[in-house]
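User: Can you help me understand a structure? I only have the sequence.
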Amino acid sequence: MLGVYKRYPFPVPFRTKFFNVIRYFFTYPVLERFLVAQLAGGNSKWWPKFIPPVYFYQHGSVRKAKRDTILYDLDISKLIDHSLYFFSIQDKAWTNLFKVIKPEFYIVDAGANIGFLSMNLAKLCPQGFIYSFEPDSENFGYLQRNKNNNHFTNIHLFKTALGEKTGKAELYKMYDNNPGANRILSSQPNQNIASETIEIAVLDEFKKNGAIKKINLLKIDVEGFEPFVLKGAKEIIETWRPILFIELAEVNLRQQGYTARKLIELVESFNYSVEDARTMQPIDRDFDNHHTDILCFPKSDNSI
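Assistant: Let's start by predicting it. Here is the structure, written out as tokens:
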């Protein structure tokens, strides 16, 4: 058991380690299934305290699980899979996002990961369509599996990143337990980090060649690369005026030579209002440590 802390990149407090002794028993299949059943029932505030942490699981600890009628293949050694499996995936921003979705929406999911949002959006948009972009090979494999598990016919998958220019880039895999943090970096990191060469496409090109017919919502969560996705979608934003749902993370943006304020100003330059997706209040452009999502709505005047 003590060996799990060696492969986890962050310090674990002694108090957590003490209670982890109890949590470890719930990694045994019978007790794990019992715990999941209790969590599914939602009958007690205590059961979540027994959830084994993500670093207790070896890579490839795959479980099949149905959540909100959607069937997933989940590797619970990964953060989002683990949260989904143990019913701890909660985000006020996503709740507010779902409220603006209409059944006929056409949506781009840039940074689809294993497809949690793509699958939920496909369910919410039976008369619409989801275009899911995910460059990481392992994530994309799970994205395919999860689409096939549910026989969705209104999702199209693209194994590519999106950016301002077409080409290739290195996708750095920052943390083994969190492939959602994989990212393109402006310079090679000093430490030895695994990477994968990926393709970058420009979203406007999909409009020009007819692969994408329209977009009502553009969701972008690409670990600091968001400004370049937006710049590569300028024609789409000008023409179709989609709602924008974008991760706003100061630390990630600074790795690209950007800031949250500059990203907000870029969105505003398209004549959009910008709201914090968790509070639905106007975003504070002067705050210097944003880590949230923004919901951006086109203003009535369509001029850019």
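Now, to help you interpret it: The mean pLDDT is 93. Residues 10 and 175 are 10 Å apart (CA to CA). Let me know which part you'd like to focus on.
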